[in-house]
Amino acid sequence: MRIWKSVYGLLAAAALLTGPIESRAEELVVVTPGGIFEKALKENFFEPFTKETGIKVIAISSGSNEQWAKLKAMQEAGKVEWDIVNSSPDESIKFADMLMKIDCAKLPNIEKHGLPGTCSENGIVQISGAGVMAWNTEKYPKDHQPKDWADFFNVKEFPGSRALMDNGAESWMMMLALMADGVPVDKLFPLDVERAAKKLEELKPNIVSWWKTGDQSQNLMRSGEADMSIMWSGRAVALMKEGAPVSFTFNQAIRDPGIWSIAKNAPNKEAAMKFFDFFILNPSAHLAFSKAVVYDTPNKEAAAQVPEADRPFRASTPENWARQAVPDWAWIAAHQDELQKRFMDVISK
Q1: 126 vs 209: CA distance, rounded Å
Q2: Which of 81, 164, 221, 332 has a CA 20 to 30 Å removed from the CA of 19?
Q3: Could you tell me if 84 and 31 are in contact, meaning their C-beta atoms sit under 8 angstroms apart?
Q4: Which is it for the CA torsion 86, 91, 96, 102, positive or negative?
Q5: Is residue 50 assigned to a domain?
Q6: Which residues constitute the domain of residue 218?
Q7: CA 221, CA 102: separation in Å to the nearest integer?
Q8: SS3 category, 155
Q9: Residue 298, preceding bond cis, omega within 30 degrees?
């Protein structure tokens, strides 16, 4: 717990005047992807939580690889500074020893207002989205647009620059490479890592960036530096809303639930649990957040109220959901070191 420090007499006097110091001075540090996502979190969840509880929420932006490396260093040094971290299902399995096990029975609001499966011992579902293929509509007009990852890799039929990810999603890069090489979405696992790596190497001359953050992926497409890129679906829709010449498809998209986990030895794990149980409340906040970032949340009342016009842009819409590739999270967690090593071999050559 992080407490404003002063001498005992001043603390006691303040307590008499303003009530318990703890209720005013606690801080909750939450790692976020930054950008519009962080802004929407602040407006709809962090600030209302502070208003209700007095607990200040401090947002820290970080990419996935950087987050886990820093958290490991903090824990090895015995000085953990973060409370809540971003996680994917496979990361919550792979890095379980760095995470606090959650007793879902202590989160009654999650049970009452969350969709089934919202809580697990390694975290709670924060959002549901997908990794999609996006393209520049000026470069590829309506009569000549890519439809799948095979087209993404087909630089003869669809010439132009490409951007892929380098932020801890090695399995995604292997999955899309295999789909581009003709592997059906339901036959991807176990991943043929060598086949996928060779396919990625074929595309390397056309890759202008291996992006690390959602903001960077948007800037690459917004500026026209990349003609096609993998993007988080919400980031692609945000570009479309701002008028950028961008479109995307959920065909062969990679399903992507986002998890919030509590760091082991977090300074304020009690406040983190309070936040989790607070987060699931208030459907109007979830709808506003979803509108801003175009991802669904696990609040079941909000999910039923998403406007019909927005459904085509949501990963959870049945027709979009059915076209997605579903990662085998347990397999990925068990083979993460192998995936990372082979992926780094590809991009470092």
Answers
A1: 28
A2: 81
A3: yes
A4: positive
A5: yes
A6: 129-256+317-348
A7: 39
A8: coil
A9: no
Same domain? 277 vs 325: no
Asked if residue 2 belongs to a domain, the reply is: no
Same domain, 37 and 174: no
- Among 257, 247, 277, which residue's Cα sits nearest to residue 131? 257
Burial class of residue 173 in the structure, from the number of CB atoms within 10 Å of its CB (0-12 exposed, 13-18 middle, 19+ buried): buried
Q: Are strands 123-136 and 228-232 parallel, antiparallel or unpaired?
A: antiparallel
Q: Tell me how far apart the alpha carbons of residues 41 and 104 are, in angstroms, rounded to a whole number.
A: 22
> Measured in whole angstroms, how far is the alpha carbon of residue 70 from the centre of its chain?
18
Question: What stretches in the chain show pLDDT beneath 50?
Answer: 1-24
Q: What is the tens place of the pLDDT at every residue in 67-120?
A: 999 999 999 999 999 999 998 888 898 899 999 999 999 999 999 999 888 999
Question: 134-169: per-residue pLDDT in tens?
Answer: 999 999 998 899 999 999 999 999 999 999 999 888
My answer on whether 135 and 50 are in the same domain is no
